[in-house]
Amino acid sequence: MASSGVNVLRYSALIAGVSYGLYRQSTLNAQSHKAQVDREYQRQASLITQAKAEFKKKNMPPGSVTKGGEDRVSVGLRMVLMGTELTTHRKPRVEEIPEADVVGEQ
Length: 106
Hints:
By secondary structure, the chain is mostly helical. The protein is 63% helix and 0% strand.
């Protein structure tokens, strides 16, 4: 018969192995679940992008494509993001106002 010290070691190793196995399994399941959620999110994002492109193509009025092949909405959005003016009409800057037009001076 094995001594009680050896039995303690055996059961301690058994409990440690089972504990590690449970921890490892839960870690792998969490990683797998996260990867599945990420794949689903990417799939939905691509479907939304595709639907937006189809909607734009369907609802774009004829003749609204520029010479470069871009539609006017994309060009306008890019200009807004770059900070350029969309129209030729702009508010004059203060230094561009003639002196006679300043209120209060005569």
